[in-house]
Each structure stands twice: as structure tokens, then as C-alpha cells.
Amino acid sequence: MNICYLVRKNLLEDLRNQPTASHNFVLLVTGALESDLPSLKAYLRESIRILKTDGILLVQGWPGSLPTLGVFLEQYLTFKYWFVVESAMIETTGLPSVHGAVLLFTKGTGRFNIMRPRLPHQTCQACGRTLKDWGGKAHLMHPGGYAISDVLKDLPPANNSTQLSEPLFNLFMEMVNYQPAGGDSSGTLLAAAPPDNITGLVAPEEGLPWRLKKITESPGQYSFPFMAPKVPAAPVHLRTPDLTSTQQFNVIHQGDVLEILRQYPDESIDLAFADPPYNLDKDYNSYEDGQAEKQYIAWCNSWLAEYVRILKPTGSLFVLNLPRWGMHHADFLNQYLHWQNWIAWDALSEPRGKIMPAHYALLFYTKHQTQFTFNYADVSPIDARHYCLRASCIRQRKQAKEDEKQPLTDIWWDIHRIKHRRDRDYHPCQLPETLLERIIRLASNPGDVVLDAFGGAGSAPVTAVRLGRRYVAIDIDPKYVAIMRHKVQQLLESGKLQRPSIKQPERAVSKKALQLELRQLAIRLNRLPTPEEIAQDTPYSIETYMNTFSSWSKALKAAKLEL
Questions:
Q1: Which of 151, 294, 313, 402 is buried most deeply by CB count within 10 Å?
Q2: 175 and 272: one domain?
Q3: Is residue 396 part of a domain?
Q4: Which one is predicted more confidently, 115 or 380?
């Protein structure tokens, strides 16, 4: 791999001297560049020009500024990842920030090539088991380490906000030093060496101080240069509510989000939360989650403007979405509210692709820059990250008085998505109540009003009731409204929620046993077996495998590790 390094002086001219479509990747360290938007856009335009088709653009920066750059780049490139990179802690008016960031875009809409870097498995300081709870699937643990996700937390601590540390730089270089996909129709894995004609450009070199052997700081470090002066999202006037006082609070509305929000007066909500549909063709009952991109962004801006209008002067807004849409939300909200944090919810989901998708963007904005409800002591500190989250380990170490703590920052790794059907209602994207509890404790007080305009299964109103807050929830789907109202009523009457038990289907043979059988067969064959070979060489029929696994690839997962 051939890398060209450019320094900050005369950088734009040096970029312009690069031939068009000459590089497989470009890495731009914006934390070490001028902080004005026109200059950064000029660097980005030249970076796009010199990229080959299907090339990769990596853009490092501060999460307060990157959304505007990301929205600009989406006009020309295809967004793939917002990598959350743990950085040295910075004190802010919001949560302490350890969130550095690197965006990954590709040129063109076709397939792009990257390697799959792995990091060593981490172990719990208390019980000695892996920090990740494999839940009976330790036989699927790769001996070479875990595949990285788009939340990078296990690299040595370093400043990755205004520069890139050497371990982080090396990880991205490993990622872009790709090799062609191996394999043939029989499942045989084909070895392939990384090509020696990969060319890349990295700039400025001042953003890699370990190369220059000196400390350099960004001209605009830790600044928020792209945030325009705050103006009202709508004319400021106390709108006469269409709802009576008894209809405004402690209520769950069924209907269109905009129609209902417009019935609320200005500055009437203490804490506004939103987890809108993600425009991913999810299977909702009454909402078509697959709008055209521009239409989706315009629709989001319309209800965000209403959120801004009805938020109290001391109020806070939290918006949860995928990182791609989070960039657009932040770019819009920066005009009207004060940015506090881009919180990265590290909610590891089903593995897919070369990079594990784990990052959900949780944007934190306030009406006033400093005077807002902020109960940090109610949510921090939390258990140290070198402990695992297994219930048995938590119980044993706390009994043994082993209970180290660490401050809550803007990377939330300790709250899992809902994993088990027994904890889930009939909704495709139900949020854990622990997530809402942290937000509500942090940004509201007892008696305050909590709004969730996309109520879904009701995690927000239920948690608000538990914590002594008033609530407003909205959903267009009458089935979800019925679920929310039933849960709130049950909580008010009995003080707890009761879910029907779900009996797991009985299987003649476990998934683990089938996967281990395929592993042994792969060892004997020295390659991955085909479905046709199963009946001949294992005691189980192909129907047994197909009825147990959702895909043949998942059935072969343990065998792939062996090979």
C-alpha cells in the first residue's frame, strides 16, 4: 500500500495538484485543519475529485461539526459509517465528552472493499469471562478476536478529537488495505494477498503527531464553527391550545404527529424525546417506513420545528436515529437550539457486513446554552467498563464489595437493546426502559412533562409514570396506542407491568449441537460442507438444519471459525 502524506501548509494547492481519480482512499483529519466551513468544503471537494470510483473517504473530526460536513458530502458520495472513537475526556456544559468521530463515505453506489479488522477479546476484571456475554454461544467466538463495530472503545486512550492516535490510524489502514472476496461455488475458501497497487492520501500530517514527533493542536480545537446564531423555528407567540388543560398532559394521543403537536402551546414541554421511524421499510402497522430521502428529511424537520417551539426555556431535546439521519437532524437543530452532545448508544445488533453496526445516534440539545435541567449526579457514576454485565457477576462482585465506578460520558455502552421476546411488546423497534430512565432522570424533575411523539410500545410514558413525571405520548397507530394505554393503566393500578410468559419451542436437537456437528464435518473435509453432504456425513437431515436456522450461512458460522 502506497500512502502520500501532505502537510497543512499549502494543502489546498497540493490537493489540486493530485491527478483526478488517482487514489483508492483519502483520510482527512479535519481536527487539525482550519475550522471555517468554506475552507473545509474546498478540501473535501478536492478529496472527492482525486478518489477512484468505489474509493473510500475517511473524515475525522469533532462530532459537533461533522454533521454539517456529512450532509455536504452526501451530495456527492454514499454514506456508510459514522465511527465513534473513544477519545480523551473533554468537559462540556452537557455530558463529559469522549466522542471523537470518523465518517466513512464511498464514491459511487456500488460495492466497496474493506478488510474486517479484529481486536482482542476483553475479559471481566471480576469473573474473568469475556466482557461480551455470549449467552451459550461461546463456540462461535472467533479465536482471533472480535470483529470491530462502528463504536471503537478498546484502543489505548488518546486524543482522537483533534488528531488520530497511531493505533487508530493503523486500524483504519488495515481496514482499507483490502483483499478480494474469497470463495468459490463449492464453499472452498480462497487465499488472496492484499493488492500492492492500493494508493492513499492522508492530510494533514500534523493530525498524526506521532509521525512528526511533536505536539500540534488544531487551529479551532473543540469549537463548534458551523452553528449559526440561534433563531426561533417558528414565530414566537403563545399559541392558544386547541386542547383543554386536562387533555394536554398525562395523555396518549392517537393521530398524526404534526396535527397534535400544533395543538400544544409554546414552551409547554420540559423534556422532548423522539425515536422516529428510521426510513428502513420496517414492518409498522400504520406507517409506511420507506419514504424518499428528501421527503423523509423534510418531514423530520417539520416535527423537529414543533419540538423546538413547544420546548420550555430550561428544556432539553433528545432525538434517537441512525447516524446518517442523525447528521441531518443535527444540521437542522444547530440553527435553533444549543448542541450539548452527540451521544453514541453502543447497542450492538445482529452482526452483518464487514463492520458490526452498533452505533445509534442520540442527539442532546437544549433551549438555553447553560441554564437547563441537568441532574448529572442522578445518573453518574456507573459501573466501570472492565466489568461484564452478567447478572450473576454483578451480584457476586457487589456482595464482595468490588464495585469500581466511572463517570457517565457521551458513549453509552452499558444499556442493551431488548434481546428476549418475553421483554418485548408487539412493536419492531421497542426501546429498553433503562434507556428512557437515564434520559428522564438526567433532564427532568418530578412533575415535569415528558413528550414522546412516536410512542410505539410506550417506553417513555411508562418510565415517566414510574419516575413521577407527567407524560404526553403520540402514535398514529391505534394498536400501539392501545398497548401504551393498557401498560400505563396497569402501572397506575398495580404498580408494575405483567407480561404473558412465552414458551420456547422444543427442539429435538439444539442449535449449538448442529453447529458443532458442521464444524467437525468441515474439519474432516478441510472446507465448508455443502447442504447435499449433510445427509451423508451427519446424523441429522438437511431439513433439521433448515428448520433450525434462518439461513445456511448462520448454520455454518462455527465451521467458518475453524477454517
A1: 151
A2: no
A3: no
A4: 380
